TrEMBL record:
GO terms for cellular component: cytosol. One of its GO terms (biological process) is DNA integration. Keywords: DNA recombination. It comes from Sphingosinicella soli. It comes from the Bacteria. GO terms for molecular function: nucleic acid binding; transposase activity. SUPFAM superfamilies: Ribonuclease H-like. Residues 163-327 form the Integrase catalytic domain. This is IS30 family transposase. NCBIfam families: transpos_IS30. Pfam families: HTH_38, rve. InterPro entries: Integrase_cat-core (IPR001584), IS30-like_HTH (IPR025246), RNaseH-like_sf (IPR012337), RNaseH_sf (IPR036397), Transposase-Integrase (IPR051917), Transposase_IS30-like (IPR053392).
Amino acid sequence: MECYNHLQLDDRRTIFRLVDAGRPVSEIAAHLQRHPATIYRELRRNRHHDEHPPFRGYFPTVAQGKAAARRVRGAKVARDPLLASYIVDRLAAAWSPEQIAGYVRRHRLAGLSISHETIYQYVYGADGRRQELWRYLPRARRSRRQRYARKPRGVHIPLANTIGERPPEIGERTSFGHWEGDLLAFRQEFGKANLTSLVERRSRYTVLAHNSSRHSAGVMAGIDRHLRAFPPALRRSVTFDRGTEFAAFVVLKARLDITSYFCKPSAPWQKGSVENSNGRIRRFLPLDTDIALTSDRELQAIVDRLNQTPRKCLDYQTPYEVLSAQIALLKTG
């Protein structure tokens, strides 16, 4: 397989000499054994523009500097102070690079355009590291790395109501009212308090509930209390993993007519919506949080922030907007 090599300073000096001698692009390309488009692109992108005619034109050292600057990680952001300032502001507001890029593209803000990958490159580039922008990312990692699977959990729930028995509409997200649930635990030295996280699959709307322990009766009571506030059409099913905290799932069926489904053993990724949401929540409530000292008001502020952040999977609408629109339809119907 043939490998492409960038033009080097010696190549650019040759281009300058031949252009200055009036040679056509086709001849320059043949001399350098390059495609003519490469030479045209080089002359267009790396030409020096100056208000004084004698200083305009193609110069090899200037062209080399321009080309090198474009290859710096996150250079597009670094070259635009307005764009850099906006990105830093949104990162500090807990938006992900993908959310920032999508929102800018959807709303055409000030004619700006950026990809999430360029934002990541800026964050992990020299300027971003100097500002420690990695602290604002969802996982707050100092360097990018691959994600690893969660450790498998034991089988505590019988194989009845497995995820394979769910109606196709749940997996395809074609209807509302289907939730995923999980438990967010914290360091043991802070006690047994924890949180239940719930995510509505279609809208990605998030709910958080305090629990004093992992006892299933209390966990289910919290789910009952929070989902009861929604119309019946918006609380039809919930998918859990096989943790013991969800063993009393029959309570939800009896009280709210909610059907429970369970992931296969050692497969929590089958409830990917809530797993993804948990990662977002950890930005505000890391493992070393004493959750017993976190008030319901503080918890609600975090939930509101999550539900009012645009999501790529919703075409950069917010979960609140999507679920509110569905509630309005139910009221008018």
